[in-house]
Amino acid sequence: MTTNLKPITPAATVRLKIGFVLARSFTLSAFALFIDTLRLASDELDKSGRVRADWQVLGNTRHLIASSCGVQVAPTSGLVDPGQFDYIVIVGGLLKNEHPIDDETVAFLKKAAAKKVPLIGLCTGTFILAEAGLMAGHVVCVSWLHYQAFRERFPDLKVRSDRLFNLDRTRGSCAGGSSAADMAAHIVRLHISREAERNALEVLQIDRARSHLHVQPRKPLAIESNDPRLNAALIIMEQNTENTISIPELAASVGLSRRQLERLFMEKAKMSPAHVYRKFRLERAKRLLTQTDASLIEIALDVGFESAGHFSRMFAKTFGQSPRELRATLSK
């Protein structure tokens, strides 16, 4: 169904034009931070004029679109020619929604891709792009919270959860939350100016925008560190307890040699990376023991141990009881 919505006409000096596609149950905070960074960069102070930027919420009906918190947003434009936009941002939300956007909107995104319009998945908007087959050949950035779900649904795509956002040629992806403002600020800086970016951030009470290299603020195992390389390594460990990677591979993924990574862990975490990685694997094993009926050997193999015996010894050493004893206490 098409709509007769007429988009607001921007000023002739517009340097950046972005269209937003909102999924059903989209994340309001990510959308608001992105679009408000754009709004405040477009004009002086908080005047909000469409002077240097323009934005539209795109939809093929006049129906309000409900966010995950219940607040509803109305489209401001129909599914017009995607070639008029510098970017199209797909704002995702709750993953339990099996049909976050309709077929006509999917076709619109494919048309945009064919015209080489950069597409950005915001929050779980990356799932929508991947489902439409539009992320093949691109690196995907997702929140640590959604990493496992993404890997299970799209095992052939390259995904990482240790960065805030990523711009990979004609595709972009963002972990969501406050990092939406960081990604929007980066785009403003590229297309408008550093002064426009600074104005937006100051009005939003943000000291400075974080770069695409910034590590997601996740602290697995409650290990405190201000070293981004160690924090990134911890997130990668946490997300790879099933398909384990070697310590040299882990080191390379954060730009270090194995020896440098080991020194870093001993200095900051007081444990070797192998020891920390084993703790992650055993924590996953503990969850599987308490939440599934899988056998000990199945769990041992799942978390990277070669035998149930070795797994049981390491588990008892870490938690003070064997896997069988843990299950026995739960059945009482």
Structural key phrases:
about 10% strand, 2 domains, alpha/beta, globular, 13 helices, Rossmann fold, about 325 residues, Arc Repressor Mutant, subunit A, single chain, 10 strands, 6-stranded mixed sheet, about 40% helix, two-stranded antiparallel ribbon, disordered N terminus
Can you describe this structure?
With 332 residues, the chain is of the alpha/beta class. It has two domains: 16-203, Class I glutamine amidotransferase (GATase) domain (Rossmann fold, 3-Layer(aba) Sandwich), CATH 3.40.50; 218-332, Arc Repressor Mutant, subunit A (Orthogonal Bundle). The chain has helices spanning 28-42, 103-114, 125-131, 147-153, 179-191, 194-203, 228-239, 247-253, 258-268, 273-291, 296-302, 308-319, 323-330; strands at 16-22, 53-58, 65-66, 72-73, 87-91, 119-122, 140-141, 159-160, 165-168, 171-174. Helix 1 (28-42) crosses helix 6 (194-203) and helix 5 (179-191) runs antiparallel to helix 6. Residues 1-11 have low confidence and may be disordered.
Count of domain modules: 2
Global mean pLDDT: 91
Number of helices: 13
End-to-end separation in angstroms reads: 58 Å
Second rung of CATH, namely the architecture of the largest domain: 3-Layer(aba) Sandwich
Q: Note poorly predicted spans.
A: 1-11
**How would you spell out the order of helices and strands?**
EHEEEEHEHEHEEEHHHHHHHHH
CATH top-level class of the largest domain: Alpha Beta
The coarse silhouette is globular
Strand content: 5-15%
Summed up:
The chain has 13 helices and 10 strands. With 332 residues, the chain is of the alpha/beta class. 41% of the residues are buried.
